[in-house]
């Protein structure tokens, strides 16, 4: 009898520790829906050519490709990583709004790799530019990535983007990355 009662209390305790909103479908995103925006862009950009310049430290490569939808998602993955619409981050950012801009800054004491996100608009729900800053650090390692993209006012498609990053491990030289992309017809 004591074992059954203990088990029931233990089970009740575990259930009470569950977050109130565990179902992602029930989550109403409080921030700009960046992941959804990028997924729509990847679908719409199929058939467009991407001219990109990639630089790792001193090595530089220039490539022209015609990405598939999946490849567009890979090319724009850093922007997907900058999406802050997660239940655990629902109250983690200061929101500053103006007529044509909204920015999100991580509150002091909150933990997230995305430190800053800014969206400028041509008009409501019609992005003009998107910028982000991602960073993490500990005693032995630091990483910072910043990026921006521009959207054409007429086509509502990404026209160019840039992502810059630096990773530093103690006692090793930093790894510096710079990616520039230009979307062509």
UniProtKB/TrEMBL annotation:
It comes from the Bacteria. It comes from Belliella calami. This is Lipoprotein.
